[in-house]
Amino acid sequence: MNEFSSPVRAGPDDRAVIRERLAAERRDTDARIAALHSDFEGIVEANALVAVDDEHDPEGSSTAFERAHVASLLARARDHLDEVDRALERLERDEYGFCERCGKPIPPDRLEVRPAATTCVRCAAAAPR
User: Fold this and answer.
1) For 63-107, what is each residue's pLDDT tens digit?
2) Distance from C-alpha of 126 to C-alpha of 106, rounded to nearest angstrom
3) Could you tell me if residue 94 is left (phi over 0), alpha (psi between -120 and 50 degrees) or otherwise beta?
4) Taking the CA of residue 49 as centre, how many other CA atoms within 13 Å lie in the half-sphere pointing to its CB?
5) pLDDT band for position 11 (50/70/90)?
6) SS3 for 98?
7) pTM score over 0.85
8) What structural domains and CATH numbers belong to the chain?
9) Are 121 and 107 in contact (CB under 8 A)?
10) What DSSP string describes 32-83?
């Protein structure tokens, strides 16, 4: 099936494969969130032990950057977890695998790489970044 095929809903076997792929993505994301949370807590704890004046300490700005960077990665991982959960909901409603913009099927190769994708390649490329 390519991106211009007529929509075909996933059968029970396909749904089981898709559900497992999304569950694996969810497990990986949960593990990433746990690791990032641990990293963030470690940075916070390390800074709590030292009186750091970010403005005057040469290490302060890099510590602040590191904390902000890990916080940003953590927020992105949590957003991705929400995307995976929404993909599971679309699967249950039999709407998984269809572009939310144009309604055409999302190519299976794209869904294999990005199981929570909500747009086809054409619509994703046309979206502002």
Assistant:
1) 888 999 999 999 999 999 999 999 999 999 999 999 999 999 999
2) 15
3) left
4) 5
5) low
6) strand
7) no
8) 12-96 (1.20.120.910), 97-129 (no CATH)
9) yes
10) HHHHHHHHHHHHHHHHHTS---TTT-TTHHHHHHHHHHHHHHHHHHHHHHHH
Residue 14: which of 93, 97, 76, 75 has the closest Cα? Answer: 97
Q: With cut-offs at 50, 70 and 90, classify the pLDDT of residue 7.
A: very low
Q: Could you identify the residue written with the tokens 């099936």?
A: 1
Q: Is 84 exposed, middle or buried, given 0-12, 13-18 or 19+ CB atoms closer than 10 A? A: buried
Say whether pLDDT at 45 is over 90.
Answer: no
Structure tokens at 125: 């490329």
Alpha carbon separation from 89 to 13, 35, 80 (Å, rounded): 17, 26, 14
Distances in whole angstroms, Cα of residue 9 to Cα of each of 14, 30, 63: 9, 29, 50
Which amino acid, residue 128? P
Whether 89 and 52 have beta carbons less than 8 Å apart is answered as no
Distance between alpha carbon 60 and the CA centroid of its chain, in Å? 30
